[in-house]
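seq as requested:
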Amino acid sequence: MTSSQLQPFTATPLSPAVGTEIFELDLCQPLTAKTVAALREIWVNSGLLVFRNNGLTIEDQTRFAAYFGTPSETNTRTDPDRDPRILLISNIRENGKPIGALPDGELQFHSDSAFHEEPLMATLLYSVEIPSTGGDTLFSNATAAYDQLPAPLKEQLKNLTAVNGYDYSTQVKRAGYDRSSGPHAIHPVLRTHPETRRKAIYVNRLMTEEICDLPDADSDSILSDLFDRIEDSDIRYTHVWKTGDLLMWDNRFVQHARTDFPTTERRLLRRVGLLGDKPY
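struct tokens:
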């Protein structure tokens, strides 16, 4: 099959606002350029692609990720047997220490690595072990949230920026997070998608600390309103994981959250992030 040929697949929307499930495409095999282009068009418009019932190796996952961008080397653990492009998301512990990141509990809505100057463009998450209940991932379309803003609020926000910082050990903003030592970045409150040119709300409950150049009371009030709009159930999709699921979402306009799950049950997923650019 040549690169100009389209490998057949079926695409079904997962919700009116965000997400598309892709059927009948074998990700264990190389994809043609035309197939990748078709998938990317769906992805940048729906924000999330879901592929179920895969048996992906690390090589399969990283090959698929590289069709859409440059995988980041986020695994900083000293582990010669671990591909540096693979970050484990897991509550499994060895010698009392988690083998991966973000081990326990729920996570509020956020866009991955928004506390970096150049946040990840995309995240690809593959499930290896899943608990019997909980650990679901919720996705929200922040462009749809922007579209619903009143015109005066859009005008007020269009040139504002906000501080984003995060430390998993504190979990709660302003409760132990030290900007002087912790990573943080200033980004526009409203972000423009570089491919679709559409705008999205780019603040989030987990990481955004304040809107710059506003009194605290005004900043808190506006952020609370924006967080609620992003988390509106009408623009969300909830993914209940099964082993062998691969999800790829666009961090430039999709936010996600995680529900709690039993600490007594194992959860293991493999993450690949794709390098992004500075929001504008």
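The mean pLDDT is 93.
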